[in-house]
Amino acid sequence: MKFKKMFFCVVSLIFSIIISGPNSMIANAVKPSKEEGISCRSKPVNDNIVCFETIDYSPEKSIKHTSGKITYRKKIIVKREYKKTDSLEVLADCTVVFTFKYDKKSYVKCEFTMPGKNKGEYYLKPLVEILPEKTISTGSIKYNLYQKNILGVYDYILDAHIDIFCSSIGDLGINSSMFY
User: Fold this and answer.
1) Contact at 8 Å (CB) between 39 and 152?
2) Phi, psi of 105 (to 5 degrees)
3) Per-residue exposure over 49-63, b if at least 16 CB sit within 10 Å of its own CB, e if not
4) How far from the centroid of its chain's Cα atoms is residue 49's Cα?
5) How does the average pLDDT of the chain come out, rounded?
6) Which pLDDT does position 30 carry in this prediction?
7) Three-state secondary structure of the chain
8) Could you tell me if 76 and 164 are in contact, meaning their C-beta atoms sit under 8 angstroms apart?
């Protein structure tokens, strides 16, 4: 019985890829959960490149301070990858970790970390901004993808963005160029 289900899933996947054509590679995987989860999306960039975006968000953690005050924290990891369409070889990638700290009343703060990246034939350069307001804080990333030309200089290919915001009560929101 398991073999029949697996066989049916594989045949359905292959059939849908054949019908949609080679330039229409779109995959969505969402693990719905109220507290934590992972959201993955892909979108074709051109005939040779497909973009993958993975958003991993942690459950809310409470921290009790010596003063008796309780604050909360959520961590969101955003990973953007550009891959070859035919082999899914990673051309360039970037990971940014946002940490939102809030009190469920009137305070929210966003911090981020980002490991350094080496340049290869392709280079993905992120520009990260924190947009603080009183009851909402936004972590914004603008990505620029470059490809090295014959002279060894990087030429601009495309840009994309994602905004992750958190309210002072812990509600999260996402605005990404992958959604349209």
Assistant:
1) no
2) -130, -75
3) bbbbbbbbbeebeee
4) 17
5) 81
6) 37
7) CHHHHHHHHHHHHHHHHHHHCCCCCCCEEECCCCCCEEEEEEEECCCCEEEEEEEEECCCEEEECCCCCEEEEEEEEEEEEEEECCCCCEEEEEEEEEEEEECCCCCEEEEEECCCCCCCCEEEEEEEEEEECCCEEEEEEEEEEEEECCCCCEEEEEEEEEEEEEECCCCEEEEEHHHC
8) yes
Q: Left if phi > 0, otherwise alpha if psi is -120 to 50, otherwise beta: which for 45?
A: alpha
* Tens of pLDDT, residues 96-141: 999 999 999 999 999 999 887 778 899 999 999 999 988 999 999 9
As a whole number of angstroms, the distance between CA 37 and CA 31 comes to 6
- Spatial distance between the Cα atoms of 115 and 58, rounded to a whole number of angstroms: 19
Q: Write phi, then psi, for 66 (nearest 5 degrees).
A: -60, -25
Q: Are 93 and 80 in contact (CB under 8 A)?
A: yes
* Per-residue tokens: 139: 């972590």
Task: Give residue 16's pLDDT band: very low, low, confident or very high (50, 70, 90).
Answer: very low
Enter the tokens of residue 147: 């490809």
Residue 10: alpha-carbon gap to chain centroid: 27
Structure token digits, residue 175: 């605005």
